[in-house]
Amino acid sequence: RCAGRLEVMHEGQWGTVCSYGWDIKGATVVCRQLGCGSALQVLWNADFGRGSGPIWLSAVNCRGTETDLSECSHEEWGKHYCGHGWDSGVVCSSKESARSSPLRFRLVNGSTACSGRVEMQVQGTWGTLCDSRWDISDAHVLCHQLNCG
């Protein structure tokens, strides 16, 4: 969960990040955002394999202090001069920092590991997630996060 090809969700679709401009400051932001500790390694040139679909970001330039990758400067969404052979990757320390408390999700009472009611853990306690404004885009993000396709 804390190492691999970097993908971002935009307009309801997952896409990759071009390694042009990708550096340890950007990786630091991603690792923090994922609750995966510190950045250990930055990877370029599809070291974790080539992605598919859109290449959403290029020329990402972070200070390293941002809380979300979207706060870093970058080319316009979808504008790039890269192929998937330039997809970015990151390796994080895998340790959750004391400052971050990433949200954890699970599916319960389903017929498979990838179906069921959505629950979220907050401060060590599991509870249900209200479906107000929940839509297919949210489901796509959750399924991706749970490695359910």
TrEMBL record:
Coiled coil: none annotated. Keywords: Disulfide bond, Repeat, Signal. The keyword Amino-acid biosynthesis does not apply. GO terms for cellular component: membrane. Pfam families: SRCR (PF00530). Disulfide bonds join C18-C82, C31-C92, C62-C72. Transmembrane segments: none annotated. PROSITE patterns: SRCR_2. Residues 1-93, 105-149 form the SRCR domain. It comes from the Eukaryota. PANTHER family: SCAVENGER RECEPTOR DOMAIN-CONTAINING (PTHR19331), SOLUBLE SCAVENGER RECEPTOR CYSTEINE-RICH DOMAIN-CONTAINING PROTEIN SSC5D (PTHR19331:SF487). This is DMBT1 protein. It comes from Nothoprocta ornata. The gene is Dmbt1_16.
